[in-house]
Amino acid sequence: MLFIEDGAPVIVQGMTGHQGMTHTARMLKAGTNIVGGVNPRKAGTTVTFEGANNGADAEIPVFATCGEAREATGAKASVVFVPPRFAKDAVVEAIEAGIELIVVITEGIPVADSAYFVELALAKGVRIIGPNCPGLITLGSQPNKPGVNLGIIPDGIVGRGPLGLVSKSGTLTYQLMGELSDIGFTACLGAGGDPIVGTTLLEALEAFEADPNTKAVMMIGEIGGFAEQDAAAWAKEHMTKPVVAYIAGFTAPEGKQMGHAGAIVSGGKGTAQDKKNALEAAGIPVGRTPGQAAAIMRDVLAKAHIA
């Protein structure tokens, strides 16, 4: 099982809001087994998603709490579309309810709040993906199984294949998925670009290394922090599968935040060149553009005779 089993029951916190409604409909159409929403003000109601269940309408119940939702549905995962000021309480509620995987899409969560719920999740053995991320998509382990789409990653870009993908950038996730769509993926994980995230690049590499169906990994990093250097150091000692990287921000000026909260070069540290040097020292080739990184991956797969 890579991050989540096929067909696992999923709840959506903030499902009845605009973003929650939009992306719940899309996740349902992708085949995700969404079994409930959480909103204490609308508990006891149902929401109809027209044509979202293989052309049929999907009737999704709304629960007051994650605990009630899990008890009623057996939910294994939650996707969080809750505004930043309420996100900490929402994630803590999901952790305390025993949800095993929590995907936090919300951006703009205070770092102190993220630090609190990430630490709590670690103590409870819960995996968090995000915050400020596009989510997670797994491609079904068998042709007749749709896999799971948790978040805002477009589901029509790729099919099943031998690649894993982990990225700090949402848009670049989609671009590299598109560049390598003819090869396919086992899973694509948006780690998020905040200074503190629940699943780091290193931890994603660990999961892909342990997955027998993943044969190579594309890793997308960006300026700021040391996540890429940490991943490189771990990969050099433990990774047996090929890894190719792309780092965004080679031309970024020092001291200017570039998009994500964590994407900032400070004191000359966290530059794209620093990361490139560390990755290449660990034997991980780095493309200077997404297209170049995809071309490197194709060459790596050909040389390793990975179809």
Count of individual helical segments: 9
Count of the domains: 2
Give the helix level as a range of percent. Answer: 25-40%
| Proportion of residues in extended strands | 15-25%
Mean pLDDT: 91
Question: Could you characterize what this model shows?
Answer:
There is one protein chain. A 7-stranded mixed beta sheet has the order 3-4-2-1-5-6-7, sandwiched between helices. By secondary structure, the protein is α/β, with parallel strands linked by helices. It is built from 9 helices and 14 strands. 53% of the residues are buried. It has helices spanning 18-29, 66-73, 84-96, 111-124, 170-179, 201-210, 227-238, 272-281, 290-303, and strands at residues 10-13, 34-38, 46-53, 56-63, 77-80, 101-104, 127-129, 135-138, 148-151, 160-167, 185-190, 216-222, 243-248, 286-287. The chain starts with 9 loop residues before the first strand and ends with a helix. It is globular and about 55 Å long. The chain folds into 2 domains: 10-129, NAD(P)-binding Rossmann-like Domain (Rossmann fold, 3-Layer(aba) Sandwich), CATH 3.40.50.720; 157-304, Rossmann fold (3-Layer(aba) Sandwich). One of its GO terms (biological process) is tricarboxylic acid cycle. Residues 3-109 form the CoA-binding domain. Keywords: Ligase, Nucleotide-binding, Tricarboxylic acid cycle. One of its GO terms (molecular function) is succinate-CoA ligase (GDP-forming) activity. Pathway: Carbohydrate metabolism; tricarboxylic acid cycle; succinate from succinyl-CoA (ligase route): step 1/1.
